[in-house]
Design brief:
With 287 residues, this protein is mostly beta strands. It contains 4 helices and 16 strands. The protein is globular.
């Protein structure tokens, strides 16, 4: 599966499509349209965050990093192992992730030890899948000037490292890029909230968490959340880059009359990064 573009978050979830169909399974996604760039693209001034609030200096620093991130990443291949636990079932998916020319693509998918059926949708066996950890989850925050509001509530520690924790808020009227798409293909662009964990000394991104604010009666989704952990990671034969090492997501559903339909939780681990090398075949000349 090719995500819609490096510069946009893409979440895919097999969920209940709406309250009126709350006992039928379907497919839904958070899949914003990719930016096309060009002369019409507005450029954000990263310095405005720190200029308006001195406590946001690390956000300004992260903004500069985010807007140059995709140009600095090499093409690479990684392995992804996803464990998905839902009501009455556990699914383990192994896949190869190829990042090339700003797009991520999954291939060589194995579900519970068996190759995925090529005639079925890639994620047909999973109730919840997320994409976008390879850049869009971060880059989206800084593409539209004035869209995201940041605040600095506290300091903390993450994995033993002192961090500054920032809250962010995307109001519904300013949301032009993150959309929930239900099983019938209908889309909504709700309000989003989230958090950033930045290393206090350097401003390095360590974790990001994103949560749409949904009307459970309209969507059949009582809650949905995705987080991604980042770390300096060795890409074999290339070097060390800030890349996702783990992603966690959770979605809870309700049915008719508010019946709890349970939750699905995923843990995806990304590992064995290596340089992407295009291959070609030399065909013998016709006789």
């Amino acid at each position: 599966m090719a995500c819609s573009g490096f510069r946009r978050l893409c979440m895919v979830a097999v969920v209940i499509s709406a309250t009126c169909q709350a006992q039928d399974s379907g497919r839904a996604s958070v899949d914003p349209t990719p930016s096309q760039g060009g002369s019409g693209t507005r450029t954000i001034n990263c310095g405005t965050f720190a200029a308006s609030d001195a406590s946001l200096v690390l956000v300004s620093k992260l903004c500069v990093f985010a807007l140059t991130y995709r140009r600095k990443l090499p093409d690479f291949i990684a392995q992804q192992t996803t464990t998905s636990q839902g009501p009455g079932s556990t699914v383990i998916m192994n896949a190869q992730v190829t990042y090339h020319d700003g797009l991520e693509r999954h291939s060589q998918v194995v579900i519970n030890g068996k190759p995925a059926n090529p005639k079925k949708p890639l994620y047909a066996d999973l109730r919840l899948v997320t994409n976008g950890e390879f850049g869009p989850l971060l880059i989206n925050l800084f593409e539209m000037p004035g869209a995201i509001e940041f605040t600095f509530p506290k300091t903390d520690a993450l994995l033993g490292v002192p961090v500054a924790v920032f809250d962010f808020h995307l109001p519904k009227p300013k949301n032009t890029f993150w959309a929930i798409r239900d099983a019938r293909g209908a889309t909504i662009k709700p309000e989003f909230r989230g958090h950033l964990w930045l290393e206090k000394e350097t401003g390095r991104l360590m974790r990001e968490e994103v949560e749409p604010v949904l009307d459970a009666w309209q969507t059949g989704i009582s809650s949905m959340k995705v987080s991604a952990d980042y770390a300096p990671t060795q890409v074999r034969d290339v070097g060390i880059f800030l890349l996702p090492v783990k992603s966690e997501s959770r979605m809870c559903l309700i049915g008719r009359l508010g019946v709890n339909l349970g939750c699905t939780a995923n843990v995806a681990v990304f590992h064995d990064y290596q340089k992407f090398v295009a291959t070609s075949r030399i065909l013998p000349a016709e006789q």
